Amino acid sequence: MLYVRSLAFNFVFYVNLIVQMILWTPYYFLSPRHRAWFVPKFWSRSCMWLYDKIAGTKNDITGQENLPEGSFILAPKHQSFWDAIAFFPFLQDPLYILKRELTWIPFFGWYIMKMRMIPVDRGSRSKALKAVVAATKEEMARNPRQLIIYPEGTRRAPGDEPAYKYGIVEIYAQLGVPVVPVAHVAGLYWPRRKFLRYPGTIKARFLPPIPPGLGKDEFMARLIGETEAACDQMLIEASRAPNPPAFPPTALKRLRELGVEA
User: Fold this and answer.
1) What span, in angstroms and rounded, lies between the C-alpha atoms of 128 and 15?
2) Is 132 strand, coil or helix?
3) In sequence order, what are the residues at sequence separation of 6 or more whose Cβ sits closer than 8 angstroms to the Cβ of residue 26?
4) What does pLDDT average to in each consecutive run of 10 residues of the chain (262 residues)?
5) What's the pTM?
């Protein structure tokens, strides 16, 4: 049943994306930008509903009281496609940094540009970082926005050694806004590079914001320490669930390091 339900969910997930993108097109492009946000947020919530009903995976996202008013940076762990779609419905006006090539995709690219996302050219990292900071400052000056950055850059398996990039430190220092870390272990249930979708409950939490103005080393230490401590606790809780998902080797190794029986 795991394979059947996973296959069914993946099929319905992409059908849902295509159908909604087509059906909502007139409303989305004729509406003011702040109203048009209803469409992607509705799509995200519908995906979470389908995930529950078809794959048997519920979502328990807490800590909304830690989201500041106005502009801030949201810094989630990046383990799965789940964390790319689960959090932005909680934000007033999310802002993503993405590859410019994505804006060339029909419909999808048009949807992206409607929301004034920040496309960057692949190439020099220093030039790209400067462009990101300048574009984000411009957006936040126009109206409050919430920049979503994955501090580790690419998806990593649950329990894997943390590999935080220095880019978020520079962006934090330049923007002067709070950073809200987000802890979760969604990769146990919606693994990267696999079509399997394990049943259970994905727990995620918006952690207390890190205030602006800290030194770069202090900020990085807090970001890593607070995020990883919360993720470790969630990993332990998932291992003690009545019907835990299949744990990858990285997660089993981390549990042993924490002194927990897998």
Assistant:
1) 34
2) helix
3) none
4) 95 95 94 95 97 96 96 96 95 90 85 89 73 89 94 93 92 95 97 92 98 96 97 96 92 94 71
5) 0.93
